[in-house]
Design a protein that fits this description.
The chain has 251 residues and is of the alpha+beta class. The chain contains 7 helices and 9 strands.
């Protein structure tokens, strides 16, 4: 049976000290064109424009020192709905694109090894003003939401997939990050599987800090059933698979 991306992760993290990566054998070194910065989508897919950076009237400024001091994992959320403006801010803070480079990389609001950014942001809004419940994907290049599908009993299925952590389903929106390993493998080969995990941490920390600006809270979730989450997001678990989650709600 072919080795799965998760098997590659385990192999690299276990043997990284002894392993020597031959970067001359990567697809980038071979002259292969880089994979796209974001997953392609159908031209007739339903897309929702998000408020642009210069349109955020309801997102207050927050002192960075205060945000760092008060950042903590929060599992109790109020019933306050998040606004589309607040969601726009959180998405920009975690995966916003500042510049697309000629080599197929992108400069974003978070660091990434080689500016490769192997993550995709899937969202399950449960209480966001003006946004129907369902599953969406963030399009960072367009700063839009791409409607993916509606899922019956999504809160129950999220709870089940996160091993009974019911607070996830009480959030206003659940951020679900997936990894597309080839985006990073194209440049780094097997070494990609270490830095993808580091990148996920950078993204989630930005979410924690951004939540402090809008009187919201989040809690990073790494305990989930891999197959259930992948199936819930409708990703195949090999070329793209769930890597991290974070429910967000008012506090």
């Amino acid at each position: 049976m072919p080795e799965s991306p998760l098997d590659k992760h385990r192999y690299f993290l276990k043997d990284s000290i002894r392993l020597t990566i031959d970067f001359s054998q990567t697809d980038q070194s071979r002259g292969v064109a880089p994979p796209p910065v974001e997953q392609p989508y159908s031209a007739d897919a339903e897309r929702i424009d998000l408020p642009q950076v210069d349109q955020w009237q309801g997102v207050p400024r927050v002192d960075l020192e205060d945000a760092i001091r008060h950042r903590e994992s929060r599992r109790a959320f109020s019933r306050r709905a998040l606004t589309l403006e607040e969601l726009s801010f959180l998405l920009w803070a975690t995966q916003g694109v500042r510049e697309v480079l000629e080599n197929g990389s992108a400069l974003r609001t978070v660091p990434s090894a080689g500016a490769r950014h192997a993550l995709e942001t899937h969202l399950c809004p449960l209480n966001v003003s003006g946004l129907e419940p369902g599953f969406y994907r963030y399009l960072p290049l367009e700063h839009q939401l791409l409607f993916e599908f509606q899922e019956p009993q999504a809160p129950r299925k999220l709870t089940e997939a996160t091993l009974g952590q019911s607070f996830v389903a009480r959030a206003a929106v659940v951020f679900c990050w997936t990894a597309i390993p080839y985006r990073m493998e194209w440049r780094y080969g097997l070494a990609a599987h270490k830095v993808i995990l580091l990148d996920a941490g950078h993204v989630c920390q930005n979410l924690y800090l951004a939540c402090e600006a809008i009187s919201a809270g989040t809690c990073a979730v790494a305990a989930y059933h891999q197959d259930l989450m992948d199936r819930l997001l409708r990703v195949n678990g090999r070329d793209e698979f769930t890597i991290y989650l974070a429910p967000v709600g008012g506090v």
